[in-house]
Amino acid sequence: MEIETIKFSPFKDQRPGTSGLRKKTKYFMQEHYLESFIQAAINAVRLFNQGDYLQAPLVIGGDGRYYNDQAIQKIIKVALANGYQHIMVACTGVLSTPGTSAVIRTQKASGGFLLTASHNPGGMEHDFGIKYNIANGGPAPEKVTEAIYAQSKELTEYKVATVADVDINKIGETMFGSARVEVFDALVDYTKVLESLFDFEMLAAFFKNGFTMRFDAMHAATGPIAKHIIERILGAAPGTVVRANPLPDFGGLHPDPNQVHAKELMDLMWSGSAPMFGAASDGDGDRNMILGQKFFVSPGDSLAVIADQAASCIRGYSKGLSGVARSMPTSRAVDLVAKAQGLSCYETPTGWKYFGNLMDAGRCTVCGEESFGTGSDHVREKDGLWAVLCWLSILAKTKLSVAEIVQRHWRKYGRYYYQRHDHEGLALEPANEVIAKLRASLPSLVGQKLGAFTISAADDFSYTDPIDSSVSSKQGIRLICGEDERVVIRLSGTGTEGATMRIYYERFCARYEGAKVEDMLGDTVRATKELLKMKEMFGHDEPDVIT
Ligand code: G1P
Ligand code: ZN
Fold first, then answer.
1. Residues framing ligand 1 (Cβ under 6 A)
2. Which atom of ligand 1 lies nearest, measured to the CA of 371?
3. Which ligand has an atom closest to residue 489 CA?
4. What gap in Å lies between CA 363 and CA 227, rounded to an integer?
5. Ligand 1 centre from 493 Cα, in Å?
6. CA distance 453 to 370
C-alpha cells in the first residue's frame, strides 16, 4: 500500500457546530476539504488516545445523502494512510446515527465518522456534514471538537493511501497490507441492541391483534432498519413503513420529522383513514415525531411520558431509571416526572454531546431535546426508532390511544404549553446584534413586563459538567417569569446559511384544561418579538417554522 502526502493551504472554517461540521455540499466537495477535516480529526484523536486504538475498529456510516459514497471512499483512504488497521464500513454506506453509535459500542471501536447533515436537505445544492464520535459511541465532546478545529487551522498536509475504491455495496473484507476494510451488514448490531430493550414478541402480538401504524422514513437512513424491525420482525402490514428507500436528495424534501416537513404523514393522521399511530424520523434517524389520530405529541411531552412509563411498559427499563436529562430549552415536563419518582434531573446545553458524560457515569438513563430528539443510554445518540418502539410498548401495555396517554399525563402532572419558533435565513450581523443587545440588557430586564407576566430572572445559560467540570457558557438566553412561564432565545449552531434564531416559549398550567397552545402563548410571543425588535431588525417577524 503506497501512501502519499498531499500538501494544501489550511482551511480556517472547520469548527464543528452543535452537531459536527456542516456546509453546503458543493463547498464540502472542493479539493482537500473533506480530507483536511478527517486528517485534523485523526490528529486530534491521537492527542486523546494512547495504546493500540489503531487496532480497534473505526466505523464509517452515513445518512445516504448526496456525496455519501464518495466521502466514504476518501475517509477509508485517509484512515488507512494513518495506520487504522480495521475500518468498518456500513454496507451501502447507509447507517443511521443511533445505528452507528450502536455499532461503535458493540464492536468496541475507537470511534467513527458519521456523514450526515441530519434533517437538512441533501443534494449538490444543499447540505453535507460530518462528525466524529468517540469510543462510547457518542458525539465527540467539546474538548475534542475544539482540538479538531485547532488542528485543522494549522494543517498543511494530509496522508492518503493510493488504493482502489472498496465496493461498499457488498458485504465482505478487503486487505490492504496488514489493514482490513470490512463492509458489514448495517442491520445486525443495532437490531440486537433494540431487541435487548423491547419485548418484540409482545409488540408482534399487538400488531397481530389489529394495531395499525404508519412510519414515514422520509427516504432517509432509518428506512431499511424500520422496515426490517417493524414489518419483518414485528409483522406489521407491508406498507406500514413508507418512503423506506434512502435517496441522495431525500426525494427533494427536508428530511425533518415535524408538522411542516412531514406533511404527508400529518395529512394522513388528520384524515378519516388515519392509522392508530403515526411516526417519522429524520435524515440520519436520530429524530422522531410521534402522532396519534388528529394528535401531535410535543417532543417535551413525549420525553416526559416515556420517562414516566418506561419502568412499567418497557422491558429494558423495568428496574427503573437512574435519572433523566434534558437540554435547557426543552420543556420542563420531564422535571415533574423526575420529581415525582425521586430521580435526578439534569439540565444541559443544546446538543446531544452534553448527555454523554452523564450517561457514562450512570447518572441518567433517558434524555431528550425539544428538537424531536429522545434517547437512552443504550447508545450515545438520540434514537428515533427507539422512541417509536417506546411508544409502541406504551400503547401495547396501556391499550390507550396516543391522545389518551398524553391527556392522562397532563391530568396527573399539569401541562407545559410549548412552542419553538424558528426565524430562519436572517442576516448574520443583525441577528448577532439582537443577541448582543439582549445579553447586555439582561440585568435591567428583571422586573419588566413580558406580556402579562413579569420577568423574575434573566440570564445567559452556562453549564458546568458535573462529571468533568468543563464549563460551556453563552448557551441561550433565558427570560424567566416566575415558576410558570419561560422564554429562551438562541442562535442555531447547525445552519449553513445566514442565521436562524430559535425562540422557545413555554407556560405551565397545573390544571390541564385543553386550551389551544397558540392562545396560551400568543401574548408572550408578541411581547418577546417586540422586546427583540424583530420587525425593525429583519423587516418581518413571522417565524418560518413553528414546532
Ligand atoms: C439543533 C437542535 C438541537 C440538536 C441539533 C442536532 O441544533 O436545536 O437540539 O441537538 O440540532 O440535531 P441548533 O440548530 O439549534 O444548534
Ligand atoms: Zn438528525
1. 18-19, 118, 327, 350-352, 369, 371, 373, 492-494, 502
2. 9
3. 1
4. 33
5. 7
6. 23
| Contact between residue 191 and residue 224 where contact means Cβ atoms under 8 Å apart | no
Q: Which residues of 415-437 are buried (b: 16+ CB within 10 A; e: fewer)?
A: bbbbbbbbbeebeeebbeebbee
* Residues at Cβ < 5 Å from ligand 2 ion: 118, 282, 284, 286-287
Residues in the chain: 547
Instruction: Count CA within 13 A, CB hemisphere, residue 251.
Output: 20
Calculate how far, in angstroms, residue 168's C-alpha sits from the geometric centre of ligand 1: 30
Query: How many helices (H) and strands (E) in the chain?
Result: 17, 28
Query: What domains sit in the chain, N to C, each tagged with a CATH number?
Result: 3-185 (3.40.120.10), 191-413 (3.40.120.10), 415-546 (3.30.310.50)
User: Half-sphere exposure of 82 toward its Cβ, with a 13 Å CA cutoff?
Assistant: 25
CB neighbours of residue 341 within 10 Å? 16
Q: Coil, strand or helix: which one is 198?
A: coil
Ligand 1 binding pocket mutation candidate from 261, 347, 350 (most atoms within 8 A of CB): 350
- Measured CA to CA, the distance from residue 283 to residue 299 in angstroms comes to 17
Q: Is 198 exposed, middle or buried (0-12, 13-18, 19+ CB in 10 A)?
A: buried
Query: What does the alpha-carbon distance between residue 323 and residue 346 come to, in Å, rounded to a whole number?
Result: 8
Question: What is the residue-level pLDDT of the chain in tens, covering all 547 positions?
Answer: 899 999 999 999 999 987 899 999 999 999 999 999 999 999 999 999 877 899 999 999 999 999 999 999 999 999 999 999 999 999 999 999 999 999 999 999 999 999 999 999 999 999 999 999 999 999 998 899 999 999 999 999 999 999 999 999 999 999 999 999 999 999 999 999 999 999 999 999 999 999 999 999 999 999 999 999 999 999 999 999 999 999 999 999 999 999 889 999 999 999 999 999 999 999 999 999 999 999 999 999 999 999 999 999 999 999 999 999 999 999 999 999 999 999 999 999 999 989 999 999 999 999 999 999 999 999 999 999 999 999 999 999 999 999 999 999 999 999 999 999 999 999 999 999 999 999 999 999 999 999 989 999 999 999 999 999 999 999 999 999 998 899 999 999 877 778 999 999 999 999 877 789 999 999 999 999 999 999 999 999 999 999 9
> What are the catalytic residues?
118
Angle separating helix axes 402-413 and 333-341, nearest 10 degrees:
70
Structural contact between residues 352 and 138, judged by C-beta atoms closer than 8 angstroms: yes
Type of residue found at 349: P
pTM: 0.94
Closest by alpha carbon to 98, among 302, 282, 371?
A: 282
* Residue 116 CA, ligand 1 centroid: distance in Å: 13
Question: Would you state the cell numbers that stand for residue 251, as one nine-digit string?
Answer: 426525494
How many Å apart are CA 328 and CA 315, to the nearest integer?
A: 29
